[in-house]
Amino acid sequence: MSAVDVPKERDLVEYRVDRILEEANTDTRIVVLARQDGALDTFPIWVGAAEGNAIKLALDTMITPRPMSHDLIKSFAEHLNITIQRVVIADVKSSTYYAMVYVANKGVERTIDARPSDAISLALRAPCPIYITQDVLKRRSTTNLDAWLAKLESKDIGTPEVQET
Amino acid sequence: MITQMQVKGLMFDPYNNAYIVVLRDEEHSDMLPIWVGKSEAGAISMSLENVTPPRPMTHDFMKSLLDAYNAKVISVVITDLSEHTYFAKIHLMYEDSEYTVDARPSDAIALALRSNAPVFANDSVITKQSSEELEQWLENLKPEDFGKLDS
Q1: CATH 3.10.690.10 is the classification of domain A3-146
Q2: pLDDT, tens digit (0-9, with 9 covering 90-100), for A72-100
Q3: CATH number, residue B16
Q4: d(Cα B122, Cα B25) in Å, to the nearest integer?
Q5: Average pLDDT score over chain A
Q6: What ipTM does this complex have?
Q7: Domain ranges of chain A
Q8: Do B64 and A77 touch (CB under 8 A)?
Q9: Numbered residues of chain B with Cβ closer than 8 Å to any chain A Cβ
């Protein structure tokens, strides 16, 4: 990664994982990120069921009997004294988000390409902050998103849209 | 004592709606089946079939992290079977020191395949396994059951 591509601090907006939604009928989950500073903005990312579950386990601080894959990654980092500094959702191409995981060991910093699901899963376990670049925030697709999310949420709390009489 | 095992393939177990990673020793005298979930099976299958996904999967990322600091996976060992859960150890070499990290066998195998590291099993695990009922069930499996991952 060249220096030109590294997002500057002012270009980053911090988000947190707000919740995980299950999409009905498909094997996908939606990770809803919300602004850490409380500003009203949500950023949804579609992930696979397994990836969504891995994030949910961390979000709910569930302890599994055996280490899950991201617990193992964290364990590697701990054994080797690698600090997971931050994760950045840094690009979007053809509706696919690209994440970067920033790590450091004795002052040697590295950036590792990751899917957002792995990056977020790891960020929750590290723990470390999650950022989205201003560039990605500008270029995201928001078509019908709010309406669609609202519909999902109403399902989520068990209120049927049409009640039988 | 430990025995080196080859990862022979994956099978779908319709009774438990799970996948089985089949390990065999080099002389093909012992077989060790390990039940794993769908996503874990997928991670192993991609390596077995040399599939390069467009984006790094979890174990590719795991390997990238180790590569970033020149940490090498020396070997993995399936160490224990208790309450039908397997335990594994991943042996790493980093800056002239060896580290042993606790892992699930599925993660250990997925990482070993990506690192070209050997997979071993404790003999006690192999013995325990062959004493169980599933041996007979496995003996009845036909070669065509050892297909590619059904997903």
Answers
A1: yes
A2: 999 999 999 999 999 999 999 888 899 99
A3: 3.10.690.10
A4: 11
A5: 86
A6: 0.87
A7: 3-146
A8: no
A9: 37-39, 43, 55-59, 61-62, 64-66, 68-69, 71, 85, 87, 90, 92, 94, 99, 101-104, 107
